[in-house]
């Protein structure tokens, strides 16, 4: 099986696995206590925090560990809004944020706040001028923008958004889930969120970084853990493993990201050549190195995923028939691109050129077969 | 995306063909459109009735890819849309 769904989750890095097993033995105690094993757990936790902070361009005391990337976003969005309640109740986001941002925005709206959604163009990027105008409007409490889109890979203009936010005195939350560890993060954020299992750490570890000086108040009941930002006993072994995975990925990222980007370029240029009636989606240049998305006309997404699974490829789709809601992906809808027959290929570290070549061999037949079964004449 | 009365007046032209794709899931409405648009003369309008939310995005996207013209999408009283497409070639 060739695993091409790294944007959902990156397989556990071997160094993370090693660190996890070691930390289960020595990092199990309560890091808030004062005896020997507790001090050892605390030391491991703080060392992991320092490493993660350094890799993400933050200070250690700005970084808290959450139970997931989704929880980091929920706490980041709602906590920043809560902290700036007296300034305003207006939240600005792009139309293509991860559902965790949109669901947090939904809670804010039900709570009487307002949400301004900035649309995107055909490539999936927000227009920096439109984002700036939205941020500058009176009463804006927080703006949210992802570093790269999770479904199509397009990079967002975070540097320009950060400049607009600085001009307006509005904090910017950057959801870096798709790029953390894979490419350098732009600065200028006030709140940063990420998810360890996307960089080869274990599931169950997210990162919430709140820049010093940013107003933030927990939307949840009080708890002493993680600088009062995140409730509950820290999963020290998983956090230690996450730091090890991030260290390993960052060490390789310059070389490995360039290699994966070249493989993605190959898929980008070959798919429309090999398969008729295909729309390749997302920005061809300004993009995350490992993600490539395309839609095949007249093809049901689920049928294509099933065919590819039979041929030994694990990929994902934003088509409605593959979603529990039976609605097409809000990202593809907002871009105005084809939502059916959608395939997202996202390459994990070490993905082989041989597997990519085999994918390009298998795909045209899989698409042809489904079109023939549906009675489509080409 | 749903047109105003002014745009409707401008669009004006009644459809030469109506495709009933209500209750059909994407990509079936698009497959029906791609086949049946050949039955109308150039510049005629085809109206696709569809209630799969994917059709609302996908028919205009299909027009862009196939160089046909998406005229407008009108909400239907019982849900779904009448999506008007002009055959360009």
Automatic annotation (TrEMBL), chain A:
Top-level taxonomic group: Bacteria
Protein's UniProt keywords contain Phosphoprotein: no
Enzyme Commission no: 2.8.1.7
The reaction(s) this protein catalyses: (sulfur carrier)-H + L-cysteine = (sulfur carrier)-SH + L-alanine
Pfam families on file: Aminotran_5
UniProt-listed Gene3D superfamilies: Aspartate Aminotransferase, domain 1 (3.90.1150.10), Type I PLP-dependent aspartate aminotransferase-like (Major domain) (3.40.640.10)
Source organism: Streptosporangium saharense
Entry keywords, A to Z: Iron, Iron-sulfur, Metal-binding, Pyridoxal phosphate, Transferase
Residue ranges occupied by any Aminotransferase class V domain in the UniProt entry: 3-359
MF terms (GO), sorted A to Z: cysteine desulfurase activity; iron-sulfur cluster binding; metal ion binding
Annotated InterPro entries: Aminotrans_V_dom, Cysteine_dSase, PyrdxlP-dep_Trfase, PyrdxlP-dep_Trfase_major, PyrdxlP-dep_Trfase_small
Swiss-Prot/TrEMBL cofactor(s): pyridoxal 5'-phosphate
Annotated protein name in UniProt: Cysteine desulfurase
UniProtKB/TrEMBL annotation, chain B:
Alphabetical UniProt keywords: Transferase
Gene3D superfamilies given in the database record: TusA-like domain
PROSITE patterns named in the record: UPF0033
Top-level taxon of the source organism: Bacteria
Stretches assigned to the UPF0033 domain: 19-43
EC number: 2.8.1.-
GO function terms (MF aspect): transferase activity
Enzyme class: transferase
Pfam families the UniProt entry points to: TusA
Family of the protein in this entry: Belongs to the sulfur carrier protein TusA family.
Protein name (record): tRNA 2-thiouridine synthesizing protein A
């Amino acid at each position: 099986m060739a695993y091409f769904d790294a944007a959902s989750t990156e397989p556990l890095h071997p160094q993370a696995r090693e660190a996890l097993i070691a930390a289960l033995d020595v990092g199990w105690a309560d890091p808030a206590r004062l005896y020997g094993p507790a001090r050892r757990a605390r030391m491991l936790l703080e060392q992991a925090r320092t490493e993660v902070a350094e890799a993400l361009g933050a200070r250690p005391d700005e970084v808290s560990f959450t139970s997931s990337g989704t929880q980091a976003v929920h706490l980041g969005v709602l906590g920043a809004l809560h902290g700036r309640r007296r300034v305003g109740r207006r939240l600005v986001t792009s139309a293509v944020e991860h559902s965790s941002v949109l669901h947090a925005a939904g809670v804010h709206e039900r709570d009487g706040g307002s949400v301004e959604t900035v649309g995107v163009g055909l490539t999936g990027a927000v227009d920096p001028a439109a984002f700036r105008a939205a941020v500058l409007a009176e009463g804006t409490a927080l703006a949210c923008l992802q570093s790269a889109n999770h479904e199509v890979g397009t990079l967002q203009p975070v540097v320009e958004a950060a400049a607009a936010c600085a001009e307006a005195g509005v904090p910017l939350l950057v959801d870096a889930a798709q790029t953390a560890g894979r490419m350098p993060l732009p600065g200028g954020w006030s709140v940063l969120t990420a998810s360890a299992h996307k960089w080869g750490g274990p599931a169950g570890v997210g990162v919430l970084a709140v820049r010093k000086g940013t107003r933030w108040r927990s939307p949840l009941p009080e708890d002493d853990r993680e600088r009062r930002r995140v409730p509950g006993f820290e999963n020290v072994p998983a956090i230690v493993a996450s730091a090890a995975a991030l260290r390993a990925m960052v060490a390789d990222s310059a070389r490995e990201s360039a290699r994966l980007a070249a493989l993605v370029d190959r898929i980008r240029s070959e798919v429309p050549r090999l398969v008729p009636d295909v729309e390749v989606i997302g920005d061809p240049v300004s993009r995350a190195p490992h993600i490539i998305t395309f839609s095949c006309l007249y093809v049901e997404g689920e049928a294509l995923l099933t065919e590819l699974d039979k041929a030994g490829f694990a990929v994902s789709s934003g088509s409605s028939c593959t979603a529990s809601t039976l609605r097409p992906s809000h990202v593809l809808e907002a871009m105005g691109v084809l939502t059916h027959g959608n395939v997202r290929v996202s390459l994990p570290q070490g993905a082989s050129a041989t597997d990519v070549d085999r994918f390009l061999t298998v795909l045209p037949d899989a698409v042809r077969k489904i079109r023939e079964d549906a009675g489509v004449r080409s | 995306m749903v047109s105003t009365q002014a745009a409707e007046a401008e669009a004006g032209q009644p459809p030469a063909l109506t495709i009933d794709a209500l209750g059909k899931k994407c990509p079936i409405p698009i497959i029906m459109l791609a086949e049946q648009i050949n039955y109308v003369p150039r510049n005629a309008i085809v109206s696709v009735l569809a209630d799969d939310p994917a059709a609302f995005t996908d028919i205009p996207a299909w027009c862009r890819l196939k160089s046909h013209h998406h005229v407008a999408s009108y909400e239907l009283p019982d849900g779904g849309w009448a999506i008007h497409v002009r055959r360009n070639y």
